[in-house]
Amino acid sequence: MQREVVSSPALLVWCLLMVLASLLRAVFVYSPQHFTVDHDAETRLWKFRLGVIVAGAVWGSSGFLLFPADHPQHLMFLIFVLAGMTVGGVASFSADLISAVAFSVLISLPVTLRLFAAGDNMSVAMGMAVLLYLGFMIVTLRRINRNVVENIFLRLEAAAREEKLREGNQRYRLLLSHLPVGIFHFDTDLVITYCNDRFADMLRSSTDRVIGLDMKQLKQQAILPGLRKALQGEMGYYEGHYFATHSVADAWIYMSCAPFPNGDGTIVGGIAIVQDVSEHKAAEEQINNLAFYDPLTELPNRRLLLDRLHHALAASARSGKEGALLFIDLDNFKSLNDTLGHDMGDSLLRQVGQRLLACVHEDDTVARLGGDEFVVMLEDLGGHDLEAAAQTEAVGERILATLGQPYQLDAHEYRCTPSIGATLFQGHRLEKEELLKQADIAMYQAKKAGRNTVRFFDQQMQDAVTARVVLESELRKALEKQQFRLYYQIQVDRTRRPLGAEALIRWMHPQRGLILPEHFIKVAEETDLILSIGQWVLDAACAQIKAWQPEARTRNLALAVNVSAKQFRQRNFVEQVQAAVQRHGISPVLLKLELTESMLLDNIEEMIKTMRALKNIGVQFSLDDFGTGYSSLQYLKRLPLDQIKIDRSFVADITSDSSDGEIVGTIIAMAQNLYLDVIAEGVETEEQRQFLLGNGCAHFQGNLFGKPLPLEQFEALLKQE
């Protein structure tokens, strides 16, 4: 760049000096070195410094040789290049303060002197700037040198510590690899970062396969809580069977986990110690089986049954739910032993035990007391005697059917029936032995009744169970033979003008006559019969709405239908309602579904979703028995209701009980604030009607206006209005 403003001899001299300086430095760098002591290292350092000084002097000579005094741009370029070389020297030679300072001074000082020698103000100012720049670089250089030297010593110290740590780790791993227990380390993501050979052997795998394993993916998830506890800074434990994910390893293990913190106390993982206690557990299990299990059928024996019955009584006392004992005796078992031998008898007993297990839930108990006597203990039945007895009866019938199937005893096909005695229990009202005695007595009652049957200890309970079974059977026949009828109770406005009616189911029994719903609806709800009955009521109501369309007096009457919780929660309930409306070709706004407050207690979000789907069709909703349940105002305002129905229990005493009056007034005001229609049911007197009118209630239902009537009488009542 300077050849345009500097004579060629000066350029050649400078280039020659630069080549010689570069060759000198190359000789110092690449000449064979034989350093064995610190003195030789010192010599090499001084050679390095000499090369740097020579190079700095050559670069500095350009401040004289290549100085174009009459060409400011080339002068600025020269100063810029020398300033850049100074920066490069600071960066390159900062590890040795002498080399860096000498290089910077030798580069910058000649051009500074040359600028001062020029004498003009600009040159002097530029010289001062270069001197300031040089001073700043030297100050900066000292700080950089100090940092570099400190880093070098830190690196050396870290290397020494790392070597010591490596030696310690090697001793640690050697110790771990020879321990008789399995050990593994894991990080905060529950990934194994180390394991010893013993642990890999326990898993029937290798350390290479185990290290890196993500334990969150294990099929044995039961060990994870103990591991996570260690990550929380606590000790974690696990004892139980372990089934390996990537091998066939199956062992009973005991594992303890401890947190693994780093130097500042932060938990970065955990360490676990694993012991294989399979042999110990096998011995313990064998002793336990001999003490608590029947060796022939492997079912619990009398001792274990009594222990579980003790816990079941305590649980029943806490929960309020009943339990039951079924005492089972095989009919004519002795004749089997006498004819086919005890081996065939033992085979039958084993098969009976397996069939009994298949008849009950996993939480229930099947025990063998001895001989051909078995006991089944049922828990968590209903909270009422009749409900619990019905559930017990169902299990008993299932056992009768299952045990009555043929048995294959070698080449013989054998049939055997049981006699079953049942008794219920709740809490500690009776002792354990007394309960077994009751079930035993009931079993003998079953034998006296002809065998192959179930009998309850309490005759009244037996009668109640029998009556319930009969009622359920008759309900099924009632559906088949269309014995149900709809009765209609009129609903009116403040002027007694008919607005509609509530459809109420009645059972026309061929022998017992008219049966009200309170005598059969509960049994229907405990079975799936309520679904068929509810579908019939819905279809019959839609058909009646259709039948009223031709006449002006009835075509605008809305018909309210009660819907059970089980019916409403069917997945296809919306489709059922829509199909009934379309099948009869009615306006859906004339169909009103009455829901009870108790339905709001379970899965309110699904309920709202179903209601909105029906509202989109046009169906109306009324909340029945309002004030008697547990409805939340938070949910109430979200329900797409059209009407709230004040329960008859509040209406009955509104004229004599101030509390009921205040409650009714509050319900009416709340309904108005929510823009909901309100209707009072159970209105019996004119005084009740006037009180309700005075509080803003405009719709009524009750005997004051008309009792529930069959269709012909209801239509006759309408003609009188």
Can you characterise this structure?
With 721 residues, the protein is an alpha/beta fold. The chain folds into four domains: 154 residues; 103 residues, PAS domain (Beta-Lactamase, 2-Layer Sandwich); 178 residues, Reverse transcriptase/Diguanylate cyclase domain (Alpha-Beta Plaits); 239 residues, TIM Barrel. The chain is built from 25 helices and 21 strands. Strands 13-14-16-17-18-19-20-21 form an eight-stranded mixed barrel, surrounded by four helices. Helix 11 packs antiparallel against helix 12. The radius of gyration is 49 Å and the shape is elongated. The model has no long low-confidence stretch (mean pLDDT 88).
Query: How do the strands of the widest beta sheet line up side by side?
Result: 13-14-16-17-18-19-20-21
CATH architecture descriptor name of the largest domain: Alpha-Beta Barrel
Beta-strand percentage?
15-25%
The CATH topology of the largest domain is given as TIM Barrel
What is the radius of gyration computed over CA atoms, rounded to a whole number of angstroms? Answer: 49 Å
Distance between the amino and carboxyl termini: 119 Å
> Which oligomerization state do the chains in this entry correspond to?
single chain
What shape does the CA trace take? elongated
Q: Residue share in helices?
A: 40-55%
* Main sheet attributes: strand count, strand direction, barrel closure: 8 strands, mixed, barrel
What is the name of the CATH class of the largest domain? Alpha Beta
Mean pLDDT equals 88
Tell me the structural class. alpha/beta
How many structural domains can be distinguished in the coordinates? 4
Given as residue ranges, the uncertain stretches (5+ residues, pLDDT < 50) are none
Give the count of helical stretches: 25
Q: Looking at this structure, what is the CATH superfamily of the largest domain?
A: EAL domain
What is the number of strand segments? 21
